[in-house]
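Milestone 3.1: sequence recovery, worked example.
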């Protein structure tokens, strides 16, 4: 029997470990299973190079709960350790590792959520166990060893009669950690952290139906056998070559990742890089729900098939955090804080690589089947538009596949759009005017008016579109965007012949005065325009610039423009060539005059969706009166 004192400066390191990693106790299981996996893969390697002359076989890792004995067992069939190795790897190296780790991070406890990932290894067992035993038999021809430690720096190390190769870790679960004796808890942890680890993990057994024999009669009763319950898929799709996977394989893997998700992904992107860093993974474009916040944090980060986190902020460019899938990289430093991560050169490269890969894929999807791409546009546009705004590298490539749909469901690229509009839709300075609507129903009358003139009207309905248009205008010479209700069309788009006003200057002055007595000045500025007599007599518009600034300040970045809360200010455009304008002027009775103006204003408000509350009630009442 040998016993001793672990050489450590901190008198009792275990309470410290426990306290320090308080929020992350559950990672002990991941650490122990990682060690079991490492030990098994090391043996595989040693047998493959002829260094270990033993049969590798088909080893598995077993997790077993002994509820009465209050013990949790983790058993592997890996390379095991000799007594000397236990002395070296467990007493010295692992311990000094744990100590060093604590030294380094004890001051940054605030960051503990992140530090919890990796670094503590074997000793994390003491977060949940009052006593830990290791029974291990090396693949080398040496007796098994039995190490015991009760959480103080004292340990015992004695021989053991174990004959099968491998290591068994026995945790005597502490009184405050009995949740880890619950089957459901362990199952949850195994599913969370170990679902895709490379060695099969057995947790209990299950009944499995035997195949029905060919000669079975009608009265055949299904027979069952008891088989190992393997909780993981040791070779998940991302570890395979894209050429070995079918579309169906990718979809199946998506279901495996998100069992509760019933919607199929739109498409996937297989990541595979080994220089200048290692990274594999599969990203999926999901159908986006409207709640983008809920959508986030769906990409899972793995390190060599061990789950690390589903917070990939800083590793994946922000606009892609709306995607789903997995990323696996041994090169992402995990035991560091987020701010460090963001400054890390490697991590930046990973982020750039992912951006590039995503734009390449989008381009090839677009080229391969544009029709299909157009069908998916509505579901992916938010991610792409956000990407254009936030990621310069993505913006550069976006011209190849980003689409601009019309209200009639036609799709243009930016280049196509410029080409299509250049002859028919320019303003007096020669700028291309892209007319757009943000809501087909709300702006229906304006859209119709524009289309009646043969103009193309686009439909841009994402919440961030005003930011995007602003950017596109800045980067494209002679390109402007104007919502269909930004001004009346004659002002937006140059017309050859000028309309001659039917009214004299005096009549116009008169008309303006009448209108201004009825229309609230603080919200409307009255503009008289000579237009086609068929055009709407009264029309409400809101200058593009004003409205866009207001939208931008509402959807974030507000401080940037310093606009604060701007008042609602509209233009009331009155068509002096309309019959209504003449009628107003020729009405003698001043009450009747006002009533005409009031009704016309309300109609204009109605078609802009601005007539609400009491005004709407009164309008409806008044309109019924006139029907009598
Ligand atoms: P790390 O895994 O980062 O090396 P750990 O503290 O988790 O650190 O483990 C320390 C060492 O103990 C390992 O490097 C390994 O040599 C040894 N070890 C731990 N668990 C096992 C095991 N199940 N089988 C064989 N060796 C193990
Ligand atoms: Mg380890």
């Amino acid at each position: 029997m040998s016993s001793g004192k672990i050489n450590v400066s901190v008198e009792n390191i275990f309470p410290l470990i426990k306290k320090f990693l308080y929020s992350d106790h559950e990672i002990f299981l991941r650490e122990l299973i990682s060690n079991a996996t490492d030990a098994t893969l090391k043996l595989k390697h040693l047998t493959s190079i002829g260094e270990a002359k033993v049969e590798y076989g088909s080893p598995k890792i077993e997790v077993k709960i002994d509820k009465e004995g209050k013990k949790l067992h983790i058993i592997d069939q890996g390379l095991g350790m000799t007594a000397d190795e236990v002395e070296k790897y467990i007493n010295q190296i692992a311990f000094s590792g744990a100590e060093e780790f604590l030294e380094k991070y004890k001051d940054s406890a605030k960051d503990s959520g992140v530090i919890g990932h990796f670094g503590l290894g074997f000793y994390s067992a003491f977060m949940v166990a009052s006593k830990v035993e290791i029974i291990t038999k090396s693949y080398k021809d040496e007796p098994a060893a039995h190490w015991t430690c009760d959480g103080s720096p004292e340990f015992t190390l004695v021989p053991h009669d174990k004959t099968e190769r491998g290591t068994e870790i026995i945790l005597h679960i502490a009184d405050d950690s009995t949740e880890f004796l619950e089957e459901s808890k362990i199952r949850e942890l195994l599913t969370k952290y170990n679902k895709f680890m490379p060695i099969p993990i057995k947790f209990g057994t299950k009944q499995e139906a035997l195949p029905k024999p060919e000669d079975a009669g009608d009265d055949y009763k299904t027979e069952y056998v008891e088989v190992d319950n393997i909780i993981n898929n040791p070779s998940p799709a991302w570890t395979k070559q894209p050429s070995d996977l079918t579309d169906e394989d990718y979809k199946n893997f998506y279901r495996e990742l998100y069992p509760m998700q019933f919607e199929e992904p739109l498409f996937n992107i297989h990541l595979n890089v080994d220089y200048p860093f290692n990274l594999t993974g599969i990203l999926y474009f999901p159908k986006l729900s409207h709640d983008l916040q809920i959508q986030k944090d769906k990409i899972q980060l793995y390190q060599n098939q061990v789950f690390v986190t589903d917070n990939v902020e800083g590793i994946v460019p922000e606009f892609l955090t709306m995607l789903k899938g997995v990323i696996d990289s041994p090169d992402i430093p995990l035991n560091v804080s987020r701010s460090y991560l963001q400054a890390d050169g490697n991590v930046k490269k990973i982020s750039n690589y992912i951006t590039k890969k995503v734009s390449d894929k989008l381009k090839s999807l677009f080229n391969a089947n544009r029709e299909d791409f157009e069908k998916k546009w509505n579901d992916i546009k938010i991610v792409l538009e956000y990407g254009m705004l936030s990621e310069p590298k993505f913006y550069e490539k976006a011209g190849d596949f980003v689409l601009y749909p019309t209200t009639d469901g036609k799709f243009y690229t930016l280049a196509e759009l410029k080409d299509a509009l250049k002859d028919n839709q320019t303003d007096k300075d020669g700028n291309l005017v892209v007319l757009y609507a943000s809501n087909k129903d709300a702006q229906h009358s304006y859209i119709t008016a524009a289309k009646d003139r043969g103009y193309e009207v686009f439909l841009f309905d994402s919440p961030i579109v005003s930011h995007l248009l602003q950017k596109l205008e800045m980067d494209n010479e002679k390109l402007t965007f104007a919502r269909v209700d930004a001004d009346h069309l004659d002002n937006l788009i140059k017309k050859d012949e000028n309309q001659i006003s039917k009214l004299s200057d005096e009549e116009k002055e008169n008309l303006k005065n009448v209108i201004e007595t009825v229309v609230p000045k603080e919200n409307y500025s009255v503009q008289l325009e000579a237009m086609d007599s068929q055009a709407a007599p009264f029309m409400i518009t809101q200058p593009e610039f004003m409205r866009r600034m207001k939208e931008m300040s509402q959807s974030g970045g507000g401080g940037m423009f310093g606009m604060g809360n701007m008042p609602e200010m509209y233009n009331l455009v009155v068509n002096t060539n309309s019959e209504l304008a003449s009628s107003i002027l020729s009405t003698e009775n001043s009450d009747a005059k006002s009533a005409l103006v009031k009704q016309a204003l309300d109609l204009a408000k109605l078609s802009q969706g601005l007539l609400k509350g009491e005004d709407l009630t009164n309008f409806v009442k008044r309109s019924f009166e006139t029907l009598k």
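The CA atoms of residues 254 and 325 lie 7 Å apart. The chain has 21 helices and 22 strands.
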